[in-house]
Amino acid sequence: MDEKQTSPELSQAELMPTQGEQVPANPPSRKRQIAVDSDDDKPQPKRARLTRKNLALFDKMGKKKDPQDSTTSSQKTKTTSTTPSGFADQAYKNGILPPRHSKPPKNLEDIHKRHTTSRATASPTESEYKRYTNKVGRAPNEATIVVEISRRMLKDYDDEGYHQSFNQSFTGFPEGVGFNNGLSAPQPDFVEGLEKREYDPFPVDEYILYDDDPDSLALPHLAGEWKGRGKNMEEARLQSAYDGAALVFARNQALSYIGKPDPLGHAEVTTFATDGTTLNQYAHYAEESEDGTTKYHQYRFKSTNLINSHGDFKDGYKHLRNAQDHARSQSSSAAHSNLLRKGPLSLY
């Protein structure tokens, strides 16, 4: 068989690089070359030249971000002044009383009657109760408890101007007015109320909850605190005491401004604290003590074990929704009354 001859000119052209070309130190394999050639209709990325400018860019890209510069939006922003160690003592000095030192409100009988009233809507079924206990029993953290309680127990109103807010600091609330001396702004896990525009045409900027927010809530009457399964319910109780004092303070300032304060010892503000298993509900009011200081009472009027039985779950569901209805009626009454006929109210 004749051997195939190669032209010297052709061999020279194949072996010698053209002017300006560089022979790679490690030429690509034939398999790699075929893969590239079979896709030659697509533009290929260009290699960055090893200039000083590009090296500086590579160095900048390779630097790790300082972990101290990063923040997470899910992190709760309550300051150290609201931790149990320092917060409890300061709150007590400010006149916020724990339940064991609080007196029952004068309208306690009305509160019990209001919260135990049967509802027009159907109660949760036994299958809904079992689904709830299953979800809560497996909840890994507080956020899951918030979702399950909100989805399965709280009422969602159709009113365009009545809304819920979760874990947002009261940035629009005045500082140093007695109950909050030396403490960071209240930041309930849950609060529900009317938007400030529902009080139009009367200005309510002096007692909105959130600064620089055209949709801020104003004069709410219900707040809540959650804890994860097995976490510290006493901390939730303490935080709800602070939340309740803030709502009572705003309500009393508004009523005093128009000369129609609540009867002495009457409670119209409600808070709750729950870990998904236990639901504690509190009535809040303020009164002047003999030494002239204001005391903020937090009276627990109901405690329900939500997973003990289907009947207990239905009771907790009813009590919580009745508290929502009462809070909504109080906010609506303020918005549609002569509450602000004299002009803007100052909380300072």
TrEMBL record:
Residues 141-328 form the DUF7924 domain. Residues 69-85 have a biased composition (Low complexity). Residues 1-135 are annotated as: Disordered. InterPro entries: DUF7924. It comes from the Eukaryota. This is DUF7924 domain-containing protein. It comes from Cercophora scortea. The lineage of its organism: Eukaryota, Fungi, Dikarya, Ascomycota, Pezizomycotina.
